[in-house]
Description:
The chain has 137 residues and is α+β, with helices and mostly antiparallel strands.
Amino acid sequence: MFKARGLKVTPQRQVLFQILSGNESHPSAEAVHAAAAQVMPGISLRTVYHTLTDLVAMGEVNVLSVRSGATRFDPNTDPHHHTVCRDCGAVHDVYLGDVTHLADDVAGFYADDVGVVINGRCQHCHPAHQTSTREKS
């Protein structure tokens, strides 16, 4: 897609493509940068931001704003929703099917896309899990 738009496919961009491909962690730009720096020391955060911005504009990556205010990037462009742990910040994909009908009753508003974010605690941060883990020790 980069070549089709007249953009160069640089070694830096190739590293970023590899990091994002199949990545289910919904990384922030900073996390993508940290992973890229492991492979290619010296890659700039600016390059990461520019590449992510280009990928979003092309529809290859989605932007997800989570409760903490952090912007995360999701290379899974299939229709899906998310759970977000309020303690550790983990984000996971959830497939709920078509939920566009949820916006049907909003007067004066016509939704073309509905994204559901379910906030709570993941199984590792939930107090019930922590109690059962302590009991086993």
